[in-house]
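User: For my dataset I need records formatted as: sequence, then C-alpha coordinates, nothing else. Please produce one.
Assistant:
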Amino acid sequence: MKTHHLLLGLLLPLFFACGGADSGQSADAHFTVSNSLNAPRKDALVLLQAKDLATNYPSIDWSAVKFMEGENNIPFQANDDDGDGQVDAFALVLNFAEGEEKTITIKPLSEGEAPPVFEKRTQAELSHKINGAWNGREYEGGEFQNVDYLRVPPEHTDHSWFIRYEGPGWESDRIGYRFYLDWRNATDIFGKKTTGMVLQNVGQDGFDSYHEPADWGQDILKVGESLGIGSLGTWTGDTALRVETTDSLQCRIVLNGPVESLIRTNYYGWKVGDISTDVNSQLSISAGSRMTRHDVSLSNALPNLCTGIVKDDKASLFHHENGSWGYIATWGKQSLADDHLGMAVLYPKNDLLEITEDSHSHVVVLSPENKHLTYYFLAAWEQEPGGIQTEEAFKKYLDGLLMELGMPLTVKF
Protein backbone atom coordinates (compact mmCIF):
# COMPACT_ATOMS: atom_id res chain seq x y z
CA MET A 1 0.00 0.00 0.00
CA LYS A 2 1.37 3.37 -0.95
CA THR A 3 1.98 5.98 1.74
CA HIS A 4 1.24 9.63 1.09
CA HIS A 5 4.47 11.62 1.18
CA LEU A 6 3.27 15.17 0.54
CA LEU A 7 4.01 16.56 4.00
CA LEU A 8 7.22 14.63 4.60
CA GLY A 9 9.49 16.27 2.09
CA LEU A 10 9.15 14.47 -1.25
CA LEU A 11 7.67 17.55 -2.82
CA LEU A 12 10.16 19.73 -0.99
CA PRO A 13 13.55 18.65 0.32
CA LEU A 14 12.53 19.63 3.84
CA PHE A 15 11.14 18.23 7.09
CA PHE A 16 9.73 20.40 9.89
CA ALA A 17 9.98 19.83 13.64
CA CYS A 18 8.19 22.57 15.57
CA GLY A 19 9.03 23.61 19.11
CA GLY A 20 7.29 26.09 21.34
CA ALA A 21 6.17 29.54 20.24
CA ASP A 22 8.46 32.54 20.53
CA SER A 23 7.85 34.57 23.68
CA GLY A 24 7.98 37.77 21.67
CA GLN A 25 10.58 39.32 24.05
CA SER A 26 13.49 39.20 21.57
CA ALA A 27 13.83 41.24 18.36
CA ASP A 28 15.61 38.36 16.64
CA ALA A 29 14.46 34.76 16.33
CA HIS A 30 16.38 31.59 15.48
CA PHE A 31 15.80 28.17 13.98
CA THR A 32 18.04 25.34 12.83
CA VAL A 33 18.34 23.49 9.53
CA SER A 34 20.11 20.13 9.53
CA ASN A 35 21.66 18.08 6.75
CA SER A 36 21.70 14.43 7.85
CA LEU A 37 23.27 13.32 4.57
CA ASN A 38 26.88 12.09 4.61
CA ALA A 39 27.60 14.43 1.73
CA PRO A 40 27.55 18.20 1.19
CA ARG A 41 24.52 19.93 -0.32
CA LYS A 42 24.94 22.96 -2.54
CA ASP A 43 22.13 25.44 -3.22
CA ALA A 44 19.63 23.49 -1.11
CA LEU A 45 16.13 24.98 -1.29
CA VAL A 46 14.45 25.56 2.08
CA LEU A 47 10.76 26.50 2.03
CA LEU A 48 9.36 27.96 5.25
CA GLN A 49 5.58 28.10 5.41
CA ALA A 50 4.30 31.47 6.63
CA LYS A 51 1.73 29.87 8.93
CA ASP A 52 4.47 27.87 10.69
CA LEU A 53 6.60 30.97 11.14
CA ALA A 54 3.65 33.03 12.44
CA THR A 55 2.77 30.29 14.95
CA ASN A 56 6.30 29.99 16.30
CA TYR A 57 7.26 33.68 16.17
CA PRO A 58 4.03 35.70 16.57
CA SER A 59 5.78 38.98 17.44
CA ILE A 60 7.65 39.35 14.14
CA ASP A 61 6.48 41.63 11.34
CA TRP A 62 7.06 39.32 8.36
CA SER A 63 6.81 42.14 5.83
CA ALA A 64 10.18 43.51 6.96
CA VAL A 65 12.68 40.75 7.77
CA LYS A 66 15.89 39.23 6.54
CA PHE A 67 17.45 35.82 7.15
CA MET A 68 21.06 35.61 8.28
CA GLU A 69 23.73 33.00 8.92
CA GLY A 70 26.13 34.71 11.29
CA GLU A 71 26.82 38.10 9.75
CA ASN A 72 25.87 37.05 6.21
CA ASN A 73 22.55 37.58 4.49
CA ILE A 74 20.93 34.40 3.14
CA PRO A 75 19.39 34.74 -0.33
CA PHE A 76 15.61 34.46 0.02
CA GLN A 77 12.30 35.54 -1.45
CA ALA A 78 8.74 35.89 -0.16
CA ASN A 79 6.29 33.75 -2.15
CA ASP A 80 2.63 34.57 -2.74
CA ASP A 81 1.50 31.25 -4.21
CA ASP A 82 -2.21 32.03 -4.60
CA GLY A 83 -2.06 35.67 -5.70
CA ASP A 84 -4.02 37.05 -2.73
CA GLY A 85 -1.35 39.58 -1.78
CA GLN A 86 -0.30 37.64 1.33
CA VAL A 87 3.00 35.84 1.82
CA ASP A 88 2.50 32.06 1.86
CA ALA A 89 6.13 30.97 2.23
CA PHE A 90 9.72 32.13 2.31
CA ALA A 91 12.19 30.39 -0.01
CA LEU A 92 15.86 30.31 1.05
CA VAL A 93 18.94 28.80 -0.57
CA LEU A 94 21.68 27.36 1.67
CA ASN A 95 24.90 25.37 1.32
CA PHE A 96 25.68 22.55 3.75
CA ALA A 97 28.74 20.53 4.59
CA GLU A 98 28.37 16.82 5.29
CA GLY A 99 26.14 16.33 8.35
CA GLU A 100 26.06 20.07 9.08
CA GLU A 101 23.48 21.87 11.21
CA LYS A 102 23.04 25.60 10.66
CA THR A 103 21.50 28.15 12.99
CA ILE A 104 19.54 30.75 11.03
CA THR A 105 18.59 34.14 12.43
CA ILE A 106 15.36 35.89 11.49
CA LYS A 107 16.23 39.54 11.86
CA PRO A 108 13.67 42.36 11.58
CA LEU A 109 14.79 45.23 9.37
CA SER A 110 15.83 48.38 11.20
CA GLU A 111 13.78 51.52 10.73
CA GLY A 112 14.61 52.88 7.28
CA GLU A 113 16.65 49.80 6.33
CA ALA A 114 16.08 48.65 2.74
CA PRO A 115 15.39 44.95 2.16
CA PRO A 116 18.44 43.09 0.81
CA VAL A 117 18.62 42.52 -2.94
CA PHE A 118 19.95 39.24 -4.28
CA GLU A 119 21.38 38.06 -7.59
CA LYS A 120 18.66 36.74 -9.84
CA ARG A 121 19.36 33.04 -10.29
CA THR A 122 15.97 31.88 -11.58
CA GLN A 123 13.43 33.27 -14.02
CA ALA A 124 10.02 32.42 -15.46
CA GLU A 125 8.35 34.35 -18.25
CA LEU A 126 5.52 34.29 -20.76
CA SER A 127 5.45 36.64 -23.72
CA HIS A 128 2.90 37.08 -26.50
CA LYS A 129 2.22 39.59 -29.23
CA ILE A 130 -0.02 42.62 -28.91
CA ASN A 131 -1.12 45.32 -31.38
CA GLY A 132 -1.45 42.82 -34.22
CA ALA A 133 -4.40 40.78 -35.48
CA TRP A 134 -5.41 37.18 -36.05
CA ASN A 135 -5.69 36.01 -39.62
CA GLY A 136 -7.13 32.55 -39.28
CA ARG A 137 -4.66 30.53 -37.20
CA GLU A 138 -1.80 33.01 -37.58
CA TYR A 139 -1.13 36.24 -35.68
CA GLU A 140 0.16 38.99 -37.95
CA GLY A 141 2.05 42.12 -36.96
CA GLY A 142 2.47 43.45 -33.44
CA GLU A 143 5.24 43.15 -30.90
CA PHE A 144 5.95 40.90 -27.94
CA GLN A 145 4.97 41.86 -24.42
CA ASN A 146 5.68 39.92 -21.24
CA VAL A 147 2.59 39.02 -19.21
CA ASP A 148 1.92 37.18 -15.95
CA TYR A 149 -1.26 35.50 -17.22
CA LEU A 150 -2.67 34.26 -20.51
CA ARG A 151 -5.87 32.48 -21.41
CA VAL A 152 -4.80 30.89 -24.68
CA PRO A 153 -6.94 32.19 -27.57
CA PRO A 154 -8.96 29.54 -29.40
CA GLU A 155 -7.20 30.52 -32.65
CA HIS A 156 -3.78 29.61 -31.27
CA THR A 157 -2.00 26.45 -32.40
CA ASP A 158 1.57 25.46 -33.20
CA HIS A 159 3.45 28.02 -35.30
CA SER A 160 0.82 30.74 -34.90
CA TRP A 161 3.65 33.28 -34.33
CA PHE A 162 1.72 34.56 -31.29
CA ILE A 163 3.74 33.39 -28.25
CA ARG A 164 7.47 34.03 -28.08
CA TYR A 165 9.31 30.68 -28.29
CA GLU A 166 5.82 29.10 -28.42
CA GLY A 167 5.16 28.91 -24.69
CA PRO A 168 6.32 29.88 -21.20
CA GLY A 169 9.97 29.47 -20.24
CA TRP A 170 11.77 28.94 -16.96
CA GLU A 171 15.44 28.78 -16.10
CA SER A 172 18.02 28.59 -13.36
CA ASP A 173 21.65 29.64 -13.59
CA ARG A 174 22.34 26.12 -14.93
CA ILE A 175 19.72 25.31 -17.60
CA GLY A 176 16.53 26.57 -19.23
CA TYR A 177 13.26 24.94 -20.33
CA ARG A 178 10.11 25.80 -22.22
CA PHE A 179 6.93 23.98 -23.12
CA TYR A 180 4.63 24.41 -26.08
CA LEU A 181 1.46 26.13 -24.90
CA ASP A 182 -0.71 24.46 -27.53
CA TRP A 183 -1.98 21.00 -28.42
CA ARG A 184 1.56 19.55 -28.25
CA ASN A 185 2.17 20.40 -24.57
CA ALA A 186 5.71 19.02 -24.68
CA THR A 187 8.82 20.27 -22.86
CA ASP A 188 12.00 21.38 -24.63
CA ILE A 189 15.46 22.41 -23.40
CA PHE A 190 17.46 25.61 -23.72
CA GLY A 191 21.14 24.81 -23.14
CA LYS A 192 22.99 27.72 -21.53
CA LYS A 193 26.61 28.80 -21.90
CA THR A 194 26.24 31.40 -19.14
CA THR A 195 24.98 31.53 -15.58
CA GLY A 196 23.10 34.77 -16.28
CA MET A 197 19.40 34.96 -17.08
CA VAL A 198 18.81 34.68 -20.84
CA LEU A 199 15.14 33.99 -21.58
CA GLN A 200 14.26 37.66 -21.93
CA ASN A 201 16.38 37.76 -25.10
CA VAL A 202 15.35 34.43 -26.65
CA GLY A 203 13.26 34.65 -29.81
CA GLN A 204 13.45 38.43 -30.02
CA ASP A 205 15.59 38.49 -33.17
CA GLY A 206 13.52 36.12 -35.27
CA PHE A 207 10.78 33.78 -34.16
CA ASP A 208 12.84 30.58 -34.09
CA SER A 209 16.35 32.02 -34.01
CA TYR A 210 17.04 30.07 -30.82
CA HIS A 211 17.67 26.96 -32.91
CA GLU A 212 20.98 28.52 -34.00
CA PRO A 213 24.03 28.71 -31.69
CA ALA A 214 24.29 32.03 -29.85
CA ASP A 215 26.46 33.53 -27.13
CA TRP A 216 23.90 32.49 -24.49
CA GLY A 217 23.35 28.95 -25.85
CA GLN A 218 20.56 27.44 -27.95
CA ASP A 219 17.61 25.07 -28.16
CA ILE A 220 19.27 21.66 -27.81
CA LEU A 221 16.43 19.11 -28.09
CA LYS A 222 14.36 17.76 -30.94
CA VAL A 223 11.00 16.93 -29.37
CA GLY A 224 8.83 15.94 -32.35
CA GLU A 225 6.03 13.57 -31.31
CA SER A 226 7.83 12.43 -28.16
CA LEU A 227 7.55 13.35 -24.48
CA GLY A 228 10.60 15.57 -24.92
CA ILE A 229 11.96 15.86 -21.41
CA GLY A 230 9.50 15.25 -18.58
CA SER A 231 6.30 16.10 -20.48
CA LEU A 232 3.04 14.97 -18.91
CA GLY A 233 0.89 12.29 -20.49
CA THR A 234 -1.04 9.12 -19.83
CA TRP A 235 -0.15 5.59 -20.92
CA THR A 236 -2.77 4.01 -23.18
CA GLY A 237 -1.21 0.54 -23.18
CA ASP A 238 1.04 1.04 -26.17
CA THR A 239 1.46 4.83 -26.54
CA ALA A 240 2.12 7.85 -24.35
CA LEU A 241 -0.72 10.33 -24.97
CA ARG A 242 0.29 13.91 -24.24
CA VAL A 243 -2.20 16.50 -22.95
CA GLU A 244 -3.42 17.18 -26.47
CA THR A 245 -7.22 17.53 -26.66
CA THR A 246 -8.54 20.08 -24.17
CA ASP A 247 -11.36 22.61 -23.95
CA SER A 248 -9.11 25.53 -22.94
CA LEU A 249 -5.76 26.48 -21.42
CA GLN A 250 -4.74 29.11 -18.89
CA CYS A 251 -1.16 29.84 -17.90
CA ARG A 252 0.17 32.01 -15.08
CA ILE A 253 3.65 33.06 -13.93
CA VAL A 254 3.23 32.57 -10.19
CA LEU A 255 6.82 33.12 -9.02
CA ASN A 256 9.68 34.89 -10.78
CA GLY A 257 12.29 35.45 -8.14
CA PRO A 258 16.01 35.24 -7.44
CA VAL A 259 15.66 31.94 -5.58
CA GLU A 260 12.63 30.18 -7.09
CA SER A 261 10.34 30.50 -10.11
CA LEU A 262 7.06 28.70 -10.81
CA ILE A 263 4.59 28.41 -13.70
CA ARG A 264 1.03 27.20 -13.17
CA THR A 265 -1.01 25.93 -16.12
CA ASN A 266 -4.64 24.84 -15.99
CA TYR A 267 -5.84 22.48 -18.70
CA TYR A 268 -9.63 22.30 -18.76
CA GLY A 269 -11.34 19.24 -20.18
CA TRP A 270 -8.42 16.98 -21.10
CA LYS A 271 -9.95 14.16 -23.10
CA VAL A 272 -8.58 10.68 -22.36
CA GLY A 273 -10.88 8.14 -24.00
CA ASP A 274 -14.24 8.44 -22.28
CA ILE A 275 -12.80 10.46 -19.37
CA SER A 276 -12.58 14.24 -19.18
CA THR A 277 -10.45 15.79 -16.45
CA ASP A 278 -9.03 19.18 -15.55
CA VAL A 279 -5.29 19.30 -14.92
CA ASN A 280 -3.44 21.72 -12.64
CA SER A 281 0.26 21.67 -13.56
CA GLN A 282 2.96 23.48 -11.58
CA LEU A 283 6.52 23.61 -12.93
CA SER A 284 9.14 25.09 -10.63
CA ILE A 285 12.91 25.53 -10.51
CA SER A 286 15.28 26.82 -7.84
CA ALA A 287 18.65 28.56 -7.86
CA GLY A 288 21.62 26.38 -8.70
CA SER A 289 19.47 23.43 -9.74
CA ARG A 290 18.97 21.65 -13.05
CA MET A 291 15.84 19.97 -11.73
CA THR A 292 12.31 21.04 -12.58
CA ARG A 293 9.72 19.89 -10.07
CA HIS A 294 6.36 19.00 -11.62
CA ASP A 295 3.33 18.96 -9.30
CA VAL A 296 0.17 17.66 -10.99
CA SER A 297 -3.41 17.58 -9.73
CA LEU A 298 -6.45 16.12 -11.52
CA SER A 299 -10.15 16.91 -11.06
CA ASN A 300 -11.18 13.39 -12.14
CA ALA A 301 -9.04 10.32 -11.65
CA LEU A 302 -7.16 8.62 -14.48
CA PRO A 303 -5.78 5.07 -14.38
CA ASN A 304 -2.26 6.47 -14.64
CA LEU A 305 -0.10 9.41 -15.61
CA CYS A 306 3.18 9.09 -17.44
CA THR A 307 6.24 11.05 -18.38
CA GLY A 308 9.51 10.26 -20.07
CA ILE A 309 12.40 11.12 -22.35
CA VAL A 310 12.67 11.31 -26.14
CA LYS A 311 14.37 8.32 -27.74
CA ASP A 312 17.68 8.86 -29.55
CA ASP A 313 19.83 6.15 -31.11
CA LYS A 314 22.96 8.08 -30.10
CA ALA A 315 22.15 7.89 -26.38
CA SER A 316 22.42 5.10 -23.83
CA LEU A 317 19.52 4.42 -21.44
CA PHE A 318 19.94 3.55 -17.77
CA HIS A 319 17.72 3.11 -14.71
CA HIS A 320 18.47 3.15 -10.99
CA GLU A 321 16.58 3.21 -7.70
CA ASN A 322 17.81 4.03 -4.20
CA GLY A 323 15.64 4.38 -1.13
CA SER A 324 12.33 6.01 -1.94
CA TRP A 325 13.29 7.46 -5.34
CA GLY A 326 14.40 6.24 -8.73
CA TYR A 327 15.28 7.58 -12.16
CA ILE A 328 15.47 6.75 -15.82
CA ALA A 329 18.09 8.66 -17.77
CA THR A 330 19.85 8.90 -21.10
CA TRP A 331 23.33 10.14 -22.01
CA GLY A 332 25.05 10.64 -25.32
CA LYS A 333 25.64 12.97 -28.26
CA GLN A 334 21.93 13.63 -28.51
CA SER A 335 21.84 17.43 -28.40
CA LEU A 336 21.07 19.53 -31.46
CA ALA A 337 24.59 20.91 -31.06
CA ASP A 338 25.83 17.35 -31.70
CA ASP A 339 27.44 17.11 -28.29
CA HIS A 340 26.77 15.39 -24.99
CA LEU A 341 23.46 15.83 -23.26
CA GLY A 342 22.11 13.97 -20.25
CA MET A 343 18.39 13.81 -19.48
CA ALA A 344 16.59 12.23 -16.55
CA VAL A 345 13.18 11.77 -14.93
CA LEU A 346 13.17 11.20 -11.16
CA TYR A 347 10.08 9.52 -9.67
CA PRO A 348 8.82 8.32 -6.26
CA LYS A 349 9.22 4.53 -6.17
CA ASN A 350 5.85 4.05 -4.46
CA ASP A 351 4.12 5.66 -7.46
CA LEU A 352 5.81 3.55 -10.14
CA LEU A 353 3.63 1.24 -12.23
CA GLU A 354 6.07 0.36 -15.00
CA ILE A 355 8.96 1.54 -17.13
CA THR A 356 8.22 0.99 -20.81
CA GLU A 357 8.53 2.64 -24.21
CA ASP A 358 6.70 3.54 -27.36
CA SER A 359 8.07 4.41 -30.77
CA HIS A 360 9.05 7.94 -29.71
CA SER A 361 9.82 7.90 -25.98
CA HIS A 362 11.23 6.08 -22.99
CA VAL A 363 8.24 6.12 -20.64
CA VAL A 364 7.73 6.07 -16.86
CA VAL A 365 4.14 5.13 -15.95
CA LEU A 366 3.04 6.40 -12.54
CA SER A 367 -0.02 6.11 -10.32
CA PRO A 368 -1.46 9.42 -9.08
CA GLU A 369 -2.30 9.17 -5.38
CA ASN A 370 -5.59 10.89 -4.54
CA LYS A 371 -5.37 12.48 -8.00
CA HIS A 372 -1.98 14.08 -7.20
CA LEU A 373 1.48 13.33 -8.54
CA THR A 374 4.96 14.82 -8.21
CA TYR A 375 8.08 14.01 -10.19
CA TYR A 376 11.24 15.80 -11.29
CA PHE A 377 13.06 16.07 -14.59
CA LEU A 378 16.37 17.57 -15.61
CA ALA A 379 18.87 18.09 -18.40
CA ALA A 380 22.65 18.49 -18.19
CA TRP A 381 24.48 19.89 -21.23
CA GLU A 382 28.24 19.59 -21.60
CA GLN A 383 28.58 23.25 -22.69
CA GLU A 384 27.18 24.60 -19.42
CA PRO A 385 29.77 26.47 -17.34
CA GLY A 386 31.30 23.62 -15.37
CA GLY A 387 29.07 21.18 -17.24
CA ILE A 388 29.05 17.40 -16.81
CA GLN A 389 31.34 15.79 -19.39
CA THR A 390 30.96 12.01 -19.03
CA GLU A 391 28.27 9.37 -18.54
CA GLU A 392 29.98 8.23 -15.34
CA ALA A 393 29.88 11.75 -13.89
CA PHE A 394 26.22 12.09 -14.90
CA LYS A 395 25.31 8.85 -13.12
CA LYS A 396 27.18 9.98 -9.99
CA TYR A 397 25.32 13.29 -10.08
CA LEU A 398 21.94 11.52 -10.39
CA ASP A 399 22.75 9.10 -7.58
CA GLY A 400 23.47 12.11 -5.36
CA LEU A 401 20.08 13.60 -6.18
CA LEU A 402 18.32 10.37 -5.18
CA MET A 403 20.03 10.53 -1.80
CA GLU A 404 19.07 14.18 -1.30
CA LEU A 405 15.42 13.51 -2.15
CA GLY A 406 15.36 10.50 0.14
CA MET A 407 16.96 12.32 3.10
CA PRO A 408 15.31 15.74 3.31
CA LEU A 409 16.65 18.61 5.35
CA THR A 410 15.22 19.00 8.84
CA VAL A 411 14.02 22.39 10.07
CA LYS A 412 13.49 22.88 13.80
CA PHE A 413 11.92 25.99 15.23
